[in-house]
Amino acid sequence: MFAKAIILAFAKHNQEANVKVVEILDGKFSAAARQEERGSYYGSLEGLTKHIAGGTLALLRMAKTALSADANAQNVLIALDDLSVDANPLDINGWQKLKAAIAAADRAWVNLAATLNDRDYDAPVKTEWYGGNPASIPLGALLTNLASHNIHHRGQLSQIFDSLKIDNDYSAIGLQFFS
Questions:
Q1: Which domains does the chain carry?
Q2: Bridge partner residues of 136 (DSSP)
Q3: How many CB atoms lie within 10 A of CB 47?
């Protein structure tokens, strides 16, 4: 039960943190300010946000493939089928679509984590990013990497917000997520 509790806590924290990030980006920045070069690897606040969303979608789709025989997981992850992240600078409609994709992917991750049992976290997920070595990793490792990826890039957003003197706090996983 512990693996499920940890992954579910990460998923819920991720969802809450992304809500806070989007609120800041919506409330404090115009489209042009979101697209302004900020010196991060992904350039802009929009670029970082799109990378977080794209990474979430990619890794959850890998989980979906690994859980192809699990009808409950497939039902939860079907929400990902029509989601995408536009590589171009976003106009207002594109920004709205990105926010909707983030919210849908976050819901899918929370629902997936709630659906799975501890044995499911051992399911092998085929990987290609390590050059085939290893050829697969356990689902739990994939989802832990997803949490780490998103925390890392939200940290980059946080650093930019800090430099602009914009209050932000989404760094700690709330104890309420472990109940």
A1: 2-178 (1.20.120.450)
A2: 126
A3: 19
